[in-house]
Each structure stands twice: as C-alpha cells, then as structure tokens.
C-alpha cells in the first residue's frame, strides 16, 4: 500500500513539474531569462545551479513556480525593469504563451493519462441503453432500449462519464431525463430511481440499465480520449459553479493532505481486484487532479496564471501596463487569501481524516 501511495504522490508531483515545465521551456524559447525553477513552495530543501537558472525543491508540495525577472514590471529594486530578456519587455503574445502553457501542459498530461487508461479497455462505454435489469425504474418510466441519454437535470450528456456525474449529483427521488429516440428528443420528468444506502448513510442511485459498447480501434481510442477529458473539464467547471452557489462546501473539497487519503482509498478499492486496478485508480485520480490544476490556474484570479493573463489583456486594451505598484498589491493580497484558503482546506482535510467530518460537514 505504501508503494502505491508513493506512486500517487510522484504522479501528483509530475503534474506540478509538467505545469512549471510548460512555463519554463516556453520562456526559454521566447528568450526570457529564468532565474529559478522550483517544485514546491516554502523553505528550500535542495537546489543546484546550471547555466543561468537555479533548480530547487521546496518543503510544501502545494505547487511550484518559474521565476522570471520583470514579471511584475519591476526589477529587484522596485525600479522599471530594463533587462531586454525580462518577462515584461517581451511582446504580449510571447508573454501570453508563457502564461498559458502551464495549464496547457496539464491538460496534455491529462490526455496522456486518459489514453493510458482507455488503452487497457477491450471496448468503450456509450450512453445508449441496450437493456434493463428486472423491475427497472427507468423502464417503468417509459424509457426504452435504444434511447440515448442527452440531458439529465439540465446537464448535457455526451459521454458515459457525463452520465455517471449527472446521476451522482441528482436527487434520486426526482430526476428529469432527456433522451434521443430515433432522432427526436423525448423527455421524462420527475423519475424516481432505485437507491441503496451508502456507508455515510446517504442514498445513492442504483443503476438498473445497461448501455451498448463502442468498438475499440485507434480512431475510437483517440475520440474517446478527447471526449472523456473534455467531460472531466466540464465536471471541474460544474464543481466550481457548485462551490460558488453553495451546492458544495469545504467538506466536499480536498487539498494536499486529503490527497494522500484519496490515493489510499483508491488504491485499497483497486487492490480488491488486482494491483493493476489499484494503479489505474490512482492514475485516474491524478488525471482528474492535473486537469483541475490546469483549469483552475486559468481562472481570472490575481496570483494565478489566469489573473496574470487578465492583467495582460487589460494592458493590451489600455495600451499601457498597469501600475506595477498597484498590480503587486492586488496580487499579494490575493496570494495571501489563496494561502489562507489552502490552510483552511488542509485543516478540513485533517478533521475529516481524524473525525470523519471536515469544516462545514
């Protein structure tokens, strides 16, 4: 089990490394000087210097950074940066590429991990019903074999992962379905599904239907890899929306502390089948995390890549950069808020591990 957890932690570190590598190699290609390439945050544990860059590993495995001169438009003394190789003195399109490539590499890693998982399948899962189990609630509601799910409670269904996600979020006592039947949309509202009681006492939807398989070949593997990764991205956005609207709380979130528990639980569940199944479960968790890392980093929040892209767009519209002094204050404030939020999530993780309930849950 310890070995599996180590695999999970290393894969998590890989998602951080590849994110920062996206920034690093793009900056190098654009002729921008990189002063430090760091994995982790906080106190430095180890480092070495090669060329003009210091490579370091830091204590807290909560991210990393690629330090470039002039990121805030100033040099180390707070004066306007005059170094021609500084980030702020490069064309806007180059700065945009440097900022966006971190998240892009995370999504590319997610695609690779998804392809590895799907490549082991003998066939893929569709969203078209093939048959029902006995006393099926869906069949009783009028849904038929051959119907293809297109929408559940307003959530569009394109893949089996969309289907699983939508059913997991739905109230099983009242679910609205849309299916495609012979090219026409047919609706079934307020359908009551069968349920089972989970270990936490909550009612969980019990699936009472089977879906048609999709033949595996190189074309369907590529298609399925992209469509399933897009499904994960959509789930990330839906989850973020749930946080904003209050549908999800801190107890539904996890940070680096809770990640070890998630990896452990995934490995344990997989080990009941085989060692490979345990590894695959961990790879799937990391795939979701790396896609999360990419998407969240693109949010227009100062201190994240998306916030820097926002400042860059404002600069393009104004045709002059924001005042470095005020931009630095805004970024510092949001960075402090981000650290505080991560600390709260970490405390919630510890509470959930020790008591079974996190903050607000």
UniProtKB/TrEMBL annotation:
<keyword id="KW-0482">Metalloprotease</keyword>
<comment type="similarity">
    <text>Belongs to the peptidase M50B family.</text>
</comment>
<feature type="transmembrane region" description="Helical">
    <location>
        <begin position="326"/>
        <end position="347"/>
    </location>
</feature>
<feature type="domain" description="Peptidase M50">
    <location>
        <begin position="9"/>
        <end position="340"/>
    </location>
</feature>
<dbReference type="GO" id="GO:0016020">
    <property type="term" value="C:membrane"/>
</dbReference>
<keyword id="KW-0812">Transmembrane</keyword>
<dbReference type="InterPro" id="IPR004387">
    <property type="entry name" value="Pept_M50_Zn"/>
</dbReference>
<feature type="transmembrane region" description="Helical">
    <location>
        <begin position="282"/>
        <end position="303"/>
    </location>
</feature>
<keyword id="KW-0862">Zinc</keyword>
<keyword id="KW-0472">Membrane</keyword>
<dbReference type="GO" id="GO:0006508">
    <property type="term" value="P:proteolysis"/>
</dbReference>
<dbReference type="GO" id="GO:0004222">
    <property type="term" value="F:metalloendopeptidase activity"/>
</dbReference>
<protein>
    <submittedName>
        <fullName>Site-2 protease family protein</fullName>
    </submittedName>
</protein>
<dbReference type="InterPro" id="IPR008915">
    <property type="entry name" value="Peptidase_M50"/>
</dbReference>
<keyword id="KW-0645">Protease</keyword>
<keyword id="KW-1133">Transmembrane helix</keyword>
<dbReference type="InterPro" id="IPR036034">
    <property type="entry name" value="PDZ_sf"/>
</dbReference>
<keyword id="KW-0378">Hydrolase</keyword>
<dbReference type="Pfam" id="PF02163">
    <property type="entry name" value="Peptidase_M50"/>
</dbReference>
<feature type="transmembrane region" description="Helical">
    <location>
        <begin position="96"/>
        <end position="118"/>
    </location>
</feature>
